[in-house]
What does this fold into?
Amino acid sequence: MSDKVAKLELDGKTYDLPVLKPTLGPDVLDIRKLYAEADVFTFDPGFTSTAACESAITYIDGDVGELLYRGYPIEQLAEKSTHLEVCYLLLYGELPTAAQLADFTQRVTKHTMVHEQMHYFFRGFRRDAHPMATMVGVVGAMAAFYHDSTDINDPWQREVAAIRMIAKLPTIAAMAYKYSVGQPFVYPKNALSYAGNFLQMCFAVPAEEYVVNPILEKAMDRIMMLHADHEQNASTSTVRLAGSSGANPFACIAAGIACLWGPAHGGANQACLEMLKEIGTVDRIPEYIAKAKDKSSGFRLMGFGHRVYKNFDPRAKVMKESADEVLGLLGIENNPLLQVAKELERIALEDDYFVSKKLYPNVDFYSGIILEAMGFPTSMFTPIFAISRTVGWISQWKEMIADKNQKIGRPRQLYIGPQKRDYVDLRHR
Ligand code: ACO
It folds into this structure.
């Protein structure tokens, strides 16, 4: 709280709105008492100007293109850290000591297997089901398998649920993939790293030995880190809203996965790669740029634009470097999709339409190219995002449950429907 107060004048009366001071970012007007005192609501569809909670986890400065996890810049973490260390940081607030990291790694690793009966659950899905559809169902169903970690009022159960989800989401996503391609499920191998284990569960088959490629392992770990949290985005807000009613953590994360699926959010990486394939060659780019500028076409450049970043998305920079590195090391730097992506970026960034609207490539612009080079079909891109974001969702959910001021989320509305009217009997309509 600061000494500053904003004044609102309405119908001849003045109302004081306290100004709250964040540690970083713009001041926040406290309107909590506005309805009680002034009998008015505020109108903010899409929450473009509304802070719905206090949070100490992630900070974004969209104007300068900065992303901090618990104060640490994403570029430093992407270069020096690992996904599991970032998970610890997001969950507990500080970087771990060597002993803490070893203990955390051990706890996550020991929870990577799923209940054996879950295998039958998978078999109920059609083989051609999108892996996100399978994940929404199976993650929600975890509440039916792990009853001993669904009491949200018990801090220990909350902790166990967090570890279980961070540990089991890669296994569930890999099983969804294996099921969709008709191959047997591959069990986790605890000697492998978090990212290496996920690659193993996706690409190993019982008929031959699978060796994790360290280049791909590192790239996968980095993709996970870059997607680990992003403050109050749509899926995280969904998790918080679901959790605000007291729903169990597995149901909340399943809600987050459902929200992430949309092409305006996590589904953009799949949509972006499909768009790059559709463009196909560099000479067709102007046609697509023109389409994106024409509102009546309904077409948007996928992987471009962001609600918060109005400069550049710092994750996209790291991802572009990663794409160059991975494709170079795999000897496929002439990948036509990468050429189309780079040229599309170059042309769009010189175009008045994109410049004036501050539309820059976002994290998903390059991630799909890396994932495809690794051998993933496009349908697995969003599930990989879901695995990565699980720690963010669960950290935000834990923060919310522990917050003494937490209330059920219940937005108001600007009603534009009919006035009160009397029922008309069917024969008189
Ligand atoms: N291509 C063409 N025009 C665009 C694009 C785009 N990708 N994105 C925004 N615009 C235009 C809009 O038409 C609008 O123009 P107007 O002011 O003339 O009406 C203006 O830019 C502002 O766009 P909004 O939709 O109001 O911005 P908003 O903040 O609501 O949307 C969003 C952000 C959803 C990410 C949007 O940029 C978009 O749809 N991008 C493509 C999908 C995508 O890549 N999503 C991934 C987001 S990152 C993530 O989830 C990890």
Q: What stands out?
A: The radius of gyration is 23 Å. The beta strands are 5-10, 13-20, 28-29, 58-61, 66-69, 72-73. Residues 155-180 form the longest helix (26 residues). The chain has 18 helices and six strands.
